[in-house]
Amino acid sequence: MFFAKLAQQNIRKNKQAFVPFILSMIFLAALNTLMLLVANDPGLAKLRGAEAITQLFGFGSVVILIFSVIFATYTGNILNKQRKKEFGLYNVLGLGKRELYKLNFFENLFSLVVTLVAGLLTGVIFSRLAYLIIKKLLGVGNEFSFSIQPTILLSVVIIIVGLYLWLYLISVISIFKSDPIELLHAKQKGEKEPKANWLLAIVGVVALVWGYWIALTIQSPVSAIMNFFTAVLLVVVGTYLLFMAGSIVILKLLRKNEKYYYNVKHFIPVSGMIYRMKQNAVGLASICVLSTMVLVTVATTAGLFFGSNDQVNQNFPREIMISSRSPLNEVKKAATDYAAKENVKLTDLQEVKSTQPLLFTTENNGLKVSNRIEFTTKKIDKAVDVTLMSLADYQQATGSKLALKSKNDILLYTTDSKYQGQILNLSGTKFNVTEQLNEDAVSALGNLSTTPVPLYLVIVKDQSQIDSLLNKWYSTKEMVSYKDPAYQFNFNFSLKNEAKRKAFIRGLSKALAASGQSGYVFEAKDSYRESIKLFDGGFFFIGIILGTAFLLATALIIYYKQVSEGMDDREQFVILQKVGMDDQEVKRVIHSQIMMVFAFPLIMALIHVAFAFPLIKKMLILFGITNWQLFLLVTIVVALIFSILYYIVYQLTARVYYRLVER
């Protein structure tokens, strides 16, 4: 009972250390409750595309769990660091290490009880709000409803108990390895001036530049996915080394600049930061990395969500799209007959004939035909898809009046950057590019701008040229399937009522199945829009949750750092005020120090996002998002909102710091 009462007294009297720690653990408990309740909702399995959306929320739950372990470890270590002197004093007064273990056990037990009660309650309350948000984002009905599942709450209890056991083990190991003198003087550790490690600073810069170079030079969306984590790892390593070693190098260079250093605004911050940069560097680097994660996560998921309409319209210029490798005569008749039977008018009927996308690789003198059997991932940055279409088929599908004078002339459209030159070499056959088409000229065809590799649409004078080229390129029996043409039959229909539209689409699908023709693909714009809204909405929700988690973690790290710095700087500022520095000068010095410390992580995070933009832009092509201007606008808005929130946190923590250091 003695240790239990002493633990309660410690928590009450040491609120400055315990309250942020307990609040962070309550936040983790609520976050895990929310994600697990959503991910395991029975109604989720009933939604269209349930498998993909379930995997998405399951992935989000795993990310939150990993984040919980890392963040709980960080906050636990901060708490232990702040209390080392207290434990050392207890040790000197007669409490042995076993007694300290017991005291720490009861402190963790009381914190655990508060965390579970408040965390589960908060998690359930916010889960209800989250369900309303998800239903709005996904556009689903009552099948996705709020329900409290006891097994999920039990899982959260197990997770939080596991986290507290892990933190208790860390605390026990810390106490076991220390002696009373070390504990009492723990805060004096690290006061020795660190050396400027130019080697680590250079390695950090190289890692950062290497990561940036990967992001800027990647050509294809598939390659972007493959190299994304390599670039992220290099940037994270570079960031930590730059803060840990590069910051000391920069501070010492500033100290050598007499005009800058011998100024009351700069002298104290620079000299103080040099002595404690080893302790500060990891925290500042963590702030920078977390800030980058917030910006990238929210901007990417928001870009997907707000770009979904463009994605649907690019893929579906008509409301119904039917594709096959054989003529669609039976399907066309079945569709028109069914529409007449249902008294529904079909409009904007369109028939498209072309080759299927053919794999080529870029060479110095043009494009060389390849095949997917022999293709390797090493060639992915050189890969392009080439689709051939006769001028007559292009004119019929788009209504274009463009013409070609000779068989050597072509019209060209590419999703890559504008084609350079007037000659296109296709595996030895050279064509004159008489005109490069823009996106409006091919938008009626659909499904052109969402391939994972650049697409070349080549319009030749007649079909005989296409047949001749295919026979030349694919002469073996194994390659005969590449000669199969691609047919499309697309149209709109005159129904506005949503229920009637769904009924017509279901009936049309059954009528086509009964037509006797096989091997076709039936796609409806309404169904695609629904599935895209479900996926992008779910992704956006997870982005908001993860972004909020990373943002709060960033704010808490900043708070912990300010408290720690304030306690360390208190005596220094007391002495300076005794020798004549007034309150206004103290505030100016504090402002200069905090701005120097906390502006740098934000600036670096914004630089990281700027260099990551081309890489993420290419990755979004795999999701059908090609409107990079919209994504740029979303990224800028997210960056502005985050910067405002970051500044608010800075202002609040600056006040905490000032209250700690003022006399």
Automatic annotation (TrEMBL):
It comes from Ligilactobacillus apodemi DSM 16634 = JCM 16172. The chain crosses the membrane at residues 21-40, 52-75, 109-131, 151-176, 197-216, 228-251, 281-306, 539-560, 594-616, 628-649. The keyword Coiled coil does not apply. Belongs to the ABC-4 integral membrane protein family. It is a multi-pass membrane protein. InterPro entries: ABC-4_Integral_Memb_Prot, ABC3_permease_C, ABC_permease_BceB-typ. One of its GO terms (biological process) is transmembrane transport. It is found in: Cell membrane. Keywords: Cell membrane, Membrane, Transmembrane, Transmembrane helix, Transport. GO terms for cellular component: plasma membrane. Residues 59-180 form the ABC3 transporter permease C-terminal domain. This is ABC transporter permease. It comes from the Bacteria.
